[in-house]
Structures are given as C-alpha cells and as structure tokens.
Amino acid sequence: MIRFKLSILAATVALLGSAPFLRAQVSKIAVVDFERAVVESAEGKKSSEKFNATLQAKQADVEKRQKDLDEAEKKLQNGARTLSDTAKADIQKDIDRKTTELKRINEDAQKDLQTMRDELLRPIAERATAILEAMAAEQGYTVVIDTSNPESNVLWVNKNSDITAELIKRIDATTPKEPAKTETPKPPAPSPNATRAPAPAPNTPRPATPAPAPAAPKKP
Fold first, then answer.
1. If you count Cβ atoms within 10 Å of the first and of the last residue's Cβ in the chain, which end, N or C, has fewer?
2. CATH number for the domain running over 25-173
C-alpha cells in the first residue's frame, strides 16, 4: 500500500515537471508569524513593557491577597479546638469576604489586562496588516499563512518562505516618530568679569529750612 502511494506521488511530481501550463499555476506561498512580528517590533516592545509592568503590579496584589486568605484559613484551622464559636464565626466571615474579593479582583484584572493589551497592540496590528498586504502584492504571493494561528496546522516551514523578519523591518520603518522634546533654554550664567551696574546713589538729604529772622522791636 505504501509503495502504491509513493508511486502515485512520483507520477504526480513527474507530471508537474513535464507540464509547463501546470507549473505556471503553482501558487507562491509565504509564511509569517504575525503575532511575533507585532510584539517584536520596536513599538511592540515598548507596548509589551507597559503591559508587563501592569501585569506584575496586578499579580503582586493578587498574591498578597491570596497570602492573607491562606493565613486566615490557617488561623481557623489551628484554632479549631481553642477558639470560641464566636471567634470561629468571625474568622469564617473574614475568609468568605476575602475569597469573594480575591475572585472579583482576579476577574477584573483579567478583563483589564485583555483590554489594555488590545489597546496597545491593535494600532500596530492594523498597520502590520496593511504592510503585509502590500508585501504580498509586491512579491506576488498568492497565499500567506500565519504560523502564530493555532489553527494553521503548519508542520514544517522553509526558512526562505518565512517573511516575519522582513515584516518587522517594515513595521519599524513606518513607526511614527515621537516629537522631539524641546527644552526651555536656561539664561546664561553671568560672567565673573562682568561689570556690575553702579549702585543707586543714596537719597540726598534736603537742606533744613532756615528759621525766620526775629522781628525788629517797635519804637515807642
């Protein structure tokens, strides 16, 4: 059975090699890891750094709350014989509250992170899609397979057919440049040899008004 299949394959290859009209119809196929191209572009790396910083902060918060919950459960377990029923009930209420908060915070964190990832990477992905379409038209590709898609079922790829690196270069080439930051020029420092302006002259005191001369005595 295997030999029969191989003979059919050999006949098919021979037929393709001897039929010029069939060779003309052979598709030009390229493969690309689209997700890697977006994430490993210069802009994608900056976005990934922002995303990872937020992810680590949320993970630290969740881990801290989980630790508090574990300590409360351990406290209840260790005091099963020594604590009063009221104390046990209070600890159990605290455990239930922390469990509810942890579940809500975890769900909110997943939604926030997914939204943030979409907002950061969507503009890059849209530009990368337009660039990829231009590349396909330029190179005459009839099919471009995305190997980052889990449904692609690609088992082997010829490196010469992989255009991921080229796509990353073109994404970086079209990345809008950030406007240069303009710094306010500092006033020049005064020169040590600079001549100082003369100090203003002190107020000149006004001359005192002379007292009036005494009147001459009248003759009798």
1. C
2. 3.30.910.20
Determine the Cα–Cα distance for residues 51 and 114; give it in Å rounded to an integer. Answer: 10
Q: How many CA atoms lie within 13 A of 162 on its CB side?
A: 14
- Residue type at 54? T
Average pLDDT over residues 176-193: 61
Identify the residue with better confidence: 157 or 194.
157
Phi-psi map region of 209: left, alpha, beta (phi>0 left; psi -120 to 50 alpha): beta
Distance from C-alpha of 47 to C-alpha of 54, rounded to nearest angstrom: 11
Cβ pair 124, 171 in contact under 8 A: yes
Alpha carbon dihedral 16, 19, 22, 27, in 10-degree steps, equals: 50
Eight-class DSSP state of 162: B
Q: Which one is predicted more confidently, 22 or 147?
A: 147
User: Measured at the alpha carbon of residue 23, what is the angle toward residues 19 and 24, in degrees to the nearest 5?
Assistant: 120
Give SS3 for 143: strand
Residue 184 pLDDT: 60
Residue 178: pLDDT band with limits 50, 70, 90: low
CB 161 within 8 A of CB 47: no
Sign of torsion, CA 121 123 127 130?
positive
Separation between Cα atoms, residue 136 and residue 171, nearest integer Å: 15
